[in-house]
Automatic annotation (TrEMBL):
HAMAP family: MinC (MF_00267). This is Probable septum site-determining protein MinC. The lineage of its organism: Bacteria, Pseudomonadati, Pseudomonadota, Alphaproteobacteria, Hyphomicrobiales. The keyword Cell division applies. Cell division inhibitor that blocks the formation of polar Z ring septums. Rapidly oscillates between the poles of the cell to destabilize FtsZ filaments that have formed before they mature into polar Z rings. Prevents FtsZ polymerization. NCBIfam families: minC (TIGR01222). Residues 131-229 form the Septum formation inhibitor MinC C-terminal domain. The keyword Cell cycle applies. Belongs to the MinC family. It comes from Kaistia terrae.
Amino acid sequence: MATPASKQRAAIRFRGRSFLATVLAPELPLADWLAELDKLSRRSEGYFASRPVILDVSGLAITKRDFAELLAMLFEREIKVMGVEGADPSWLGFGMPPSVSGGKQTEILHKPSAEPPKNSFVDRAVPSLLIETPVRSGQSIIFPQGDVTVIGSVASGAEIIAGNSIHIYGTLRGRAIAGSTGNAGARIFCQKFEAELIAIDGLYQTADDLDASLRGKAIQAWLANDKMNMAALA
């Protein structure tokens, strides 16, 4: 029997949407890595709240049991793993996060030096986002395409996440996360440094780890030899 046109089922609609996820790449021994993760969570409360996470275990010498225990321990810390990269396919089944791969990364634009360059520039066109108002506590500005510039301050509890560099023409009291898509050449600049946390290309430093002598000063931060470097701006 033919179905009346008025009762025909509507066509299924698929929509594309992009989300920015944090990638956690554990290191052995896992107990030590989890202890450092706990320190980060305590110093930057709420950082992982409602934030999608990809767990990257590529090349990590662990067993299926280790992997299951790691997921359980992350769940206890309210870290929601939405996908796993580099895991043995036999480890992933019903109730486990799905396997993911092929995440897009940004090309590293230049090799960072041990000292900030003087009177130099890179000739390139980088997409940028300009924020002309202060960023209030609880706000997140996420711009994975390029630079973020804030004309004003970033309050405690607020965060700026940029695929490239971050420029703040006021006080940075919240979190600044540059190079979020894999750009180790990204930098962070601010007029007055009072940050809760800064990060470049996944390398984090919290308030307790930062050089107290730089607080209240205009600074820049960059990576060299997989280490966070900071210096006052003249």
